Task: inverse folding
Protein backbone atom coordinates (compact mmCIF):
# COMPACT_ATOMS: atom_id res chain seq x y z
CA UNK A 1 0.00 0.00 0.00
CA UNK A 2 1.06 3.53 -0.70
CA UNK A 3 1.33 5.97 2.20
CA UNK A 4 -1.55 8.07 0.82
CA UNK A 5 -3.80 5.00 0.81
CA UNK A 6 -2.95 4.33 4.43
CA UNK A 7 -3.78 7.92 5.34
CA UNK A 8 -7.11 7.72 3.51
CA UNK A 9 -8.10 4.43 5.14
CA UNK A 10 -7.10 5.63 8.60
CA UNK A 11 -9.03 8.88 8.08
CA UNK A 12 -12.12 6.98 6.98
CA UNK A 13 -11.80 4.66 9.95
CA UNK A 14 -11.55 7.59 12.37
CA UNK A 15 -14.54 9.27 10.73
CA UNK A 16 -16.54 6.06 10.98
CA UNK A 17 -15.69 5.68 14.66
CA UNK A 18 -16.61 9.32 15.29
CA UNK A 19 -20.03 8.93 13.63
CA UNK A 20 -20.63 5.67 15.50
CA UNK A 21 -19.79 7.40 18.80
CA UNK A 22 -22.21 10.23 18.00
CA UNK A 23 -24.98 7.79 17.16
CA UNK A 24 -24.30 5.75 20.28
CA UNK A 25 -24.42 8.78 22.59
CA UNK A 26 -27.59 10.41 21.23
CA UNK A 27 -30.49 10.53 23.62
CA UNK A 28 -33.54 9.17 21.91
CA UNK A 29 -35.40 10.31 24.96
CA UNK A 30 -39.05 10.66 24.58
CA UNK A 31 -39.13 9.30 28.12
CA UNK A 32 -38.46 12.78 29.56
CA UNK A 33 -40.54 14.72 27.06
CA UNK A 34 -43.98 14.18 28.61
CA UNK A 35 -42.74 15.25 32.03
CA UNK A 36 -40.86 18.24 30.58
CA UNK A 37 -43.78 19.41 28.43
CA UNK A 38 -46.21 19.27 31.33
CA UNK A 39 -43.85 21.06 33.70
CA UNK A 40 -43.16 23.85 31.20
CA UNK A 41 -46.69 24.12 29.74
CA UNK A 42 -45.59 23.37 26.17
CA UNK A 43 -48.04 23.95 23.33
CA UNK A 44 -47.73 22.39 19.91
CA UNK A 45 -47.11 24.95 17.21
CA UNK A 46 -49.18 22.87 14.79
CA UNK A 47 -52.17 24.50 16.43
CA UNK A 48 -50.81 28.06 16.31
CA UNK A 49 -48.38 28.48 13.41
CA UNK A 50 -48.68 26.69 10.09
CA UNK A 51 -45.06 27.05 8.99
CA UNK A 52 -43.38 25.62 12.08
CA UNK A 53 -45.59 22.65 12.85
CA UNK A 54 -42.96 20.36 14.38
CA UNK A 55 -42.08 22.67 17.26
CA UNK A 56 -43.39 23.07 20.76
CA UNK A 57 -43.43 26.53 22.43
CA UNK A 58 -42.91 26.35 26.17
CA UNK A 59 -43.44 28.89 28.95
CA UNK A 60 -39.78 29.95 28.82
CA UNK A 61 -40.42 31.42 25.34
CA UNK A 62 -38.23 28.87 23.53
CA UNK A 63 -39.33 26.55 20.75
CA UNK A 64 -38.29 22.94 21.28
CA UNK A 65 -38.08 20.20 18.67
CA UNK A 66 -38.26 16.56 19.56
CA UNK A 67 -35.52 14.79 17.60
CA UNK A 68 -37.88 12.48 15.75
CA UNK A 69 -39.84 15.47 14.46
CA UNK A 70 -36.88 17.39 13.03
CA UNK A 71 -36.88 17.72 9.29
Result:
Amino acid sequence: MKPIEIVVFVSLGVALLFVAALLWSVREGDEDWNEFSQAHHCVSLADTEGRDRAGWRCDDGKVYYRWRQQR
About this structure: The helical segments are 3-25, 33-39. Residues 3-25 form the longest helix (23 residues).
